[in-house]
Amino acid sequence: MVWEIVHVPDKVPGLEESTVNVLASNVEPKLANTIMRQLSLVAPLENLRHVKRIRRKPTTGKSELSIVLCPSFGNENELGSIPDDVQKLINDYHLSPFTAKVYKYAATSKEEWEEQCKLWPTSYHPMVNVNCVTGFSEEDSQWIISCMKTTLKLAKLNHFGDQGLNAALIVDPACRQLIASAVDQTPVTLESFFHENGGDEAENFGRLFQVYTSDESAEALSSVSCLQPWSWPQQCPQDLSWHPLKHAPVVAIESSAARDRQLFPLHDLNPSISFPSKRQRTEIPQVLTRPYLCTGFDIYLAWEPCAMCAMALVHQRVRRIFFAFPNPNAGALGSVHRLQGERSLNHHYSVFRVSAS
């Protein structure tokens, strides 16, 4: 089983920012190779090496071929200045140039590549070493993957019958200490298996990813709070402890606050005692001081959080968020919204997706 840590960017470039215009033309299939060889000499695509020169579009009875002639220097409705060598090819082969759009940069994921090819075919070369993408060392990557495995175990072990639940794990990465853990509605303790890695990993996690990403899982996942933030309160059981706002990330935050009150009781008795207000944890503290909310902590989630939970994590000053499964219904960190890129907020965290294949 291969695990991958992928950064979720804070914004997706608009079409005008991510594409450029090129001059293209339909060509006869028997002339395509000849024209392409000549173009590679007189008009190489130096800054668009990921763009395939020829596009093949299936039509009734045969395929229609189009070829990129050269970059366009005019606007979308003008052909602009065409280099003399390219103009000669257009005249020699009686081509009819038109303006087309291609993506400016090479795809960084298979999903992005598939989206690019809808506009014009591009090449995709996946990076073998995920650390080149994320910037994590091998040791850090293994730690992150270990924490995500624990989070997924937590979600799996706390299924309510056949219903799934979201799970949250708050960790201090500076000293690699578990701060709090929770599932929807319930704080849990898991020190007993926090470092366990028993069982067949490929079978356990492979099945989990397969179930959570299949179309048949919709009913089983109807009880995942962040996936169904509007209908979830309507599922209130006959239990006075149940609360519609107790999504797993919120419960984990409450558990972290309760831990602080237990470890630092004098602060509640004497509010004048100061503590580091916005200290980002880069080193293990020498003196035990009460942290400011969840400053510098990481949180691991089975599911991408909804807007309410994502904002709660902003207010808590969380440093990084890792999640395993996207949330197509109400995801606030990439699937529907990208709260991490909202400039008006006074705190911003980094977001990563951890997945297995």
Entry keywords:
single chain; 357 residues; alpha+beta; Cytidine Deaminase, domain 2; 2 domains; 7-stranded mixed β-sheet; 4-stranded antiparallel β-sheet; 10 helices; metal ion binding; CMP_dCMP_dom; Cytidine_deaminase-like; tRNA processing
Largest sheet, order of strands side by side?
Answer: 1-11-10-9-6-7-8
Examine the coordinates and then state which fold CATH places here, giving the name of the CATH topology of the largest domain.
Cytidine Deaminase, domain 2
What is the helix/strand order? EHEHEEHEHHHEEEHHHEHEE
According to CATH, the homologous superfamily of the largest domain is Cytidine Deaminase, domain 2
| Quaternary structure state of the chains depicted | single chain
CATH class of the largest domain: Alpha Beta
Helix percent reads 25-40%
Overall structural domain count: 2
Q: Flag low-confidence runs.
A: 127-133, 191-198, 277-287
Tally the beta strands.
11
Largest sheet: 7 strands, mixed
Structural class: alpha+beta
From the N-terminal CA to the C-terminal CA, the straight-line distance is 6 Å
What is the molecular shape?
elongated
CATH architecture of the largest domain: 3-Layer(aba) Sandwich
> Please, what is the average pLDDT?
78
- Binned strand content: 15-25%
* Rg, Cα atoms, Å: 26 Å
If helices are DSSP runs of H or I spanning 4 or more residues, what is the number of helices? 10
